[in-house]
Amino acid sequence: EAGVTQFPSHSVIEKGQTVTLRCDPISGHDNLYWYRRVMGKEIKFLLHFVKESKQDESGMPNNRFLAERTGGTYSTLKVQPAELEDSGVYFCASSQDSGGYEQYFGPGTRLTVT
Amino acid sequence: AQKITQTQPGMFVQEKEAVTLDCTYDTSDPSYGLFWYKQPSSGEMIFLIYQGSYDQQNATEGRYSLNFQKARKSANLVISASQLGDSAMYFCAMREYGGFKTIFGAGTRLFVKA
């Protein structure tokens, strides 16, 4: 069974540019989560999808971040325009049901904004 | 509010020895789960072990055990017989039972010496 995959693994962009991160959850997992770890800080929850619906986006830092999950399969996280403080590692996770204890994490996308 | 505290930014251990990584937590919710994840240099987050707040016994998974002291709100990870491959970042995390938002600590970087 394939795990959670994320693309790209690493992205380097200039301030002001746009970047789109992609996450493919484990097949059959309705729940998809985005987290990020800014350098030296804790991993923070960004948002949670159940299928294509956003259940909680309270962790999204500002309106420069837009997450979508069209069709309830893969998800994208767009940052537009990127700022220096957006640099960090963005993790995606998925789970079969939100009450379950295990969330399967992807390898993360390291975003560097210069 | 929920909070996870990992006070050891870095730890060294000799190969084949045991090591304890500290984790304390704070929550007002009586039902919660505690997790430990390993993040090797390759970046992926690997689930190691889970402890439910109502579990009577400490969780164990192979060389990993969780020293759960509910009254002290601590959930230390014990790795027995350390191996060079255990060198990684370790995150303690918590989630409300039935919830979806995982709260992470800042992590502890473990170095295993040959």
Describe the structure.
The complex is a heterodimer of chains A (114) and B (114). Chain A is an all-beta fold and 114 residues long. Helices cover 0% and strands 50% of the residues of chain A. Chain A is built from no helices and 11 strands. Chain A has strands at residues 5-7, 10-13, 19-24, 31-38, 43-50, 53-56, 65-68, 75-79, 88-95, 104-105, 109-113. In chain A, the strands form 2 sheets. In chain A, strands 2, 4, 5, 6, 9, 10 and 11 form a 7-stranded mixed sheet that branches. In chain A, a hairpin with a 2-residue loop joins β5 and β6. The radius of gyration of chain A is 13 Å and the shape is globular. The termini of chain A are far apart. The model of chain A has no long low-confidence stretch (mean pLDDT 92). Chain B has strands at residues 3-5, 10-14, 19-21, 24-26, 32-39, 46-52, 60-61, 64-69, 74-79, 88-96, 103-104, 108-113. The mean pLDDT of chain B is 93. Chain B is an all-beta fold. Chain B starts with a strand and ends with a strand. Chain B has no helices and 12 strands. In chain B, strands 2, 5, 6, 10, 11 and 12 form a 6-stranded mixed sheet that branches. Chain B has a 4-stranded antiparallel sheet with strand order 3-9-8-7, with no helix packed on it. In chain B, 35% of the residues are buried. Chains A and B meet through β4, β5, β9 and β10 of A and β5, β6, β10 and β11 of B.
Features:
heterodimer; A: 114 residues; mainly beta; seven-stranded mixed sheet; B: 114 residues; four-stranded antiparallel sheet
Distance between the termini of chain A: 37 Å
What is the multimeric organization of the chains shown?
heterodimer
Question: What are the low-pLDDT stretches of chain B, counting only 5+ consecutive residues below 50?
Answer: none
Spell out the helices and strands of chain B N to C. Answer: EEEEEEEEEEEE
Give start-end ranges of low-pLDDT stretches of chain A. none
Biggest sheet overview of chain A: 7 strands, mixed
Strand element count of chain B: 12
How would you describe the shape of chain B? globular
